[in-house]
Design goal:
Elements (H helix, E strand, L loop, with lengths): L11 E5 L3 H12 L4 E5 L2 H11 L3 E5 L7 H9 L9 E5 L4 H9 L4 E4 L4 H65 L4 H27 L8 E4 H15 L5 E6 L5 E4 L1 H17 L6 E10 L7 E9 L6 H4 L19 H11 L3 E7 L3 E9 L21 E5 L3 H13 L3 E5 L5 H7 L4 E5 L6 H12 L5 E5 L5 H10 L3 E3 L4 H13 L11
Parallel strand pairs: 1-2, 1-3, 3-4, 4-5, 7-9, 13-14, 13-15, 15-16, 16-17
Antiparallel strand pairs: 6-8, 9-10, 10-12, 11-12
Helix pairs in contact: 2-3, 5-6, 5-11, 6-10, 7-8, 8-10, 13-14
Length: 519
C-alpha cells in the first residue's frame, strides 16, 4: 500500500541548536512537509538570523555556547516584532524548574529530547494554524476599526454638508432677489452673477461630501449613456492636453440607465483627470460602453462603462486603498484624496459596481456596471415645462429666517400669496384658519421636525399637498415617509427657477395621494 504524502505546510522555521546533526534532521523533516527552514548555531546567532529572516516559528535549544536558549528567548521577546512569534524550547532538561523557566522567559511550547519528530511536526502545524487564526482576527479588527472611522467621517461630512447647504440656500435666494431688483444695472448683475457662480461651486463641493457619505439625493432620470459620454468627450477635448489621445469605443443598443447626469459627468471627469496625472506624455485614454450580460446570479442586464489608460499603473497594495477617502498617491497638497472615493460613492448610489485592474508599467482600467432601465420611454427632456407663476396660497415652514425671507420674496414675485412659519407646531393652526394650496416644509427643524409634521398634517388632511426641502439627504426611513405622504423633495441649495418649477408642477398635479394605510 502506497504511503500517504504528509500534508504540506507553508511557513518559515528557524532552528537554533549547536548540534549540526540535530539541525540537519530538523531541516530535512520540516522541509519534507513544505516548510522553509533556516539554521543558527547558538542564541547570539539566533538574534541576528531572526532579525534578518523574520521567521514565523523559532525552535530553540537551551544548552548552547555564547548565549543559551533561555536568554535568547528572553531577548527576542523584548523586540516588538517578536513579541508574539511562537518559540518552542527543545532541550534534554526535563525537570520542572527548567520547564517553568522556559515559560517564564516567553516560550510558547516545550519539547524534550530525544525529539519525536512526528509530534514536533504536529505541534508546528498547530502553531501555524494558530498564527493564521490570529492574523484573520487582527485583520477583522482592523477592518472594523476602519469601517468605524469611515462611518464617523461620513456622518461628519453629511452634517457639514447640511449646514453648508443651508448657508448656500440663503446666499442663492438673496442674490437672485438682488438680480430681479437691479436687472438694468450691468455692474450689479455681473457682481451678483459671480456670487451665484460661487454658490454653484460650493454646491458641487457639498455634493462631493454627500456622495462620499452616501447621503446624496440623486436627481436621476432615464438617460442614454452613449449620448452622455459624447457630451463629456467634448468637454475633455477642451480640458486634457493635446498630447493625450482620447478614444471612444461606444457599444450599440446598450439600453438606457437611470442616472444623475451631473454625477455621471463627475465620474468620467474624475477618472479622466486621475488617469492623466498617472500618464506620461503621448499616451491614450479610452472610454468604452457595452451591454454586459450577467452569467452568474445578479442583475441580468447591465451597462458597462470603462475608463482605461496605458500609463504607469499601480501595484496591488495601492489598488487595495484607492477607494478610501483621503488616500492619495500624490505629493502633499496636490490632491484631497476624495476623487476616487467620490466615484465609488456615486456608483454605489446608482446601485452599480466598480472594479479596478492595473499592472505596473502597463496601465489601469476602471469598469463600472449600471443596471439597465426597466422603463426608459419617459425622460425629463420630453416632459412639458410648466409655467412657473401662479396665484395660489403657499405656506413656507423653515426655522432659518434668511432662507424663509428669500423663498417668500421669490414666490411672492411670481404671484403667489405666501404665509410663513418657523416651526412645524405652528402649521396646524394656520391650516385651520386659512386655505393653503401647498406647504413647503423643511425637514431639519427643532421640536416636531419636518418628517413627523408631514405625517401628522397629511393624515389629518389627506388632500394637502406638501413639498419637502432640506440641505441634508434624508435617511431611508425618512425618504420612505416623504415618498408616501409628500409630493416631492427639493434638495438645497436650489435656484429660484427650480423651486418655482417644482411648485407649479405640484400645484398642477391632480393625482390622488395614496397614504400608507391605503396601500
Amino acid at each position: 500500500m502506497k504511503e500517504a504524502k504528509p500534508e504540506q505546510l507553508s511557513g518559515h522555521v528557524l532552528v537554533v541548536d549547536d548540534d549540526p546533526i540535530l539541525r540537519g534532521i530538523a531541516q530535512a523533516t520540516l522541509q519534507d512537509v513544505g516548510l522553509l527552514v533556516s539554521e543558527a548555531e547558538d542564541g547570539a546567532a539566533a538574534l541576528i538570523s531572526a532579525a534578518d529572516l523574520q521567521p514565523d516559528i523559532i525552535l530553540m535549544d537551551v544548552m548552547m555556547p555564547n548565549m543559551n536558549g533561555f536568554d535568547a528567548t528572553c531577548a527576542l521577546r523584548k523586540i516588538p516584532e517578536f513579541a508574539t512569534v511562537p518559540i518552542m524550547i527543545m532541550t534534554a532538561l526535563e525537570d520542572m524548574e527548567s520547564i517553568n523557566r522556559a515559560y517564564e522567559v516567553g516560550a510558547t511550547d516545550f519539547i524534550t529530547k530525544p525529539i519525536n519528530w512526528v509530534i514536533l511536526v504536529q505541534r508546528v502545524r498547530y502553531m501555524l494554524r494558530t498564527l493564521e487564526v490570529t492574523a484573520r482576527q487582527q485583520q477583522l479588527e482592523a477592518d472594523l476599526q476602519q469601517a468605524q472611522k469611515l462611518e464617523a467621517v461620513a456622518t461628519l461630512a453629511g452634517g457639514v454638508a447640511h449646514d453648508f447647504n443651508n448657508l448656500l440656500q440663503t446666499i442663492q435666494g438673496v442674490s437672485e432677489l438682488l438680480l430681479s431688483k437691479h436687472k438694468g444695472d450691468t455692474g450689479i448683475v455681473n457682481e451678483v452673477g459671480q456670487i451665484i457662480s460661487a454658490v454653484g461651486k460650493g454646491s458641487s463641493l457639498t455634493k462631493q461630501l454627500l456622495t462620499y457619505s452616501r447621503k446624496l439625493v440623486s436627481e436621476k432620470k432615464s438617460i442614454n449613456l452613449n449620448a452622455q459620454v459624447l457630451q463629456i468627450y467634448q468637454l475633455l477635448l477642451r480640458t486634457i492636453p493635446k498630447m493625450v489621445e482620447i478614444k471612444l469605443d461606444l457599444g450599440s443598443d446598450i439600453g438606457m440607465i437611470d442616472a444623475d447626469t451631473t454625477q455621471i459627468e463627475q465620474i468620467l471627469m474624475n477618472l479622466a483627470i486621475n488617469s492623466l496625472e498617472a500618464m506620461p506624455d503621448g499616451v491614450t485614454l479610452t472610454i468604452r460602453t457595452s451591454r454586459h450580460i450577467q452569467d452568474t446570479p445578479g442583475p441580468p442586464q447591465r451597462v458597462s462603462l470603462s475608463v482605461s489608460d496605458n500609463g504607469k499603473g499601480m501595484d496591488e497594495k495601492t489598488i487595495s486603498h484607492i477607494f478610501e477617502p483621503f488616500f492619495s498617491t500624490k505629493a502633499p497638497g496636490k490632491g484631497t484624496g476624495l476623487g476616487l472615493s467620490m466615484v465609488h460613492g456615486i456608483v454605489k448610489n446608482h446601485d452599480g459596481e466598480i472594479t479596478c485592474q492595473s499592472v505596473p508599467g502597463e496601465g489601469t482600467s476602471f469598469e463600472m456596471l449600471f443596471p439597465v432601465c426597466e422603463d426608459s420611454k419617459l425622460t425629463h427632456e420630453c416632459q412639458q415645462t410648466p409655467s412657473i407663476g401662479g396665484h395660489e396660497t403657499i405656506l413656507l415652514v423653515d426655522d432659518d429666517k434668511g432662507q424663509l425671507d428669500a423663498c417668500r420674496h421669490s414666490l411672492a414675485d411670481a404671484g403667489y400669496t405666501v404665509k410663513t412659519a418657523t416651526a412645524a407646531e405652528q402649521v396646524t393652526k394656520i391650516l385651520c384658519a386659512d386655505h393653503i394650496d401647498l406647504v413647503i416644509l423643511d425637514i431639519m427643524m427643532p421640536g416636531m421636525g419636518g418628517i413627523r409634521g408631514l405625517e401628522k398634517f397629511v393624515e389629518a388632511m389627506p388632500d394637502l399637498k406638501v413639498l419637502m426641502a432640506s440641505g441634508h439627504a434624508p435617511s431611508e426611513e425618512a425618504m420612505e415617509t416623504i415618498d408616501t405622504f409628500s409630493r416631492g423633495f427639493l434638495h438645497k441649495p436650489f435656484s429660484r427657477e427650480r423651486m418655482l418649477a417644482h411648485v407649479r408642477d405640484v400645484l398642477d398635479e391632480t393625482r390622488p395621494k395614496v397614504l400608507a394605510g391605503n396601500r
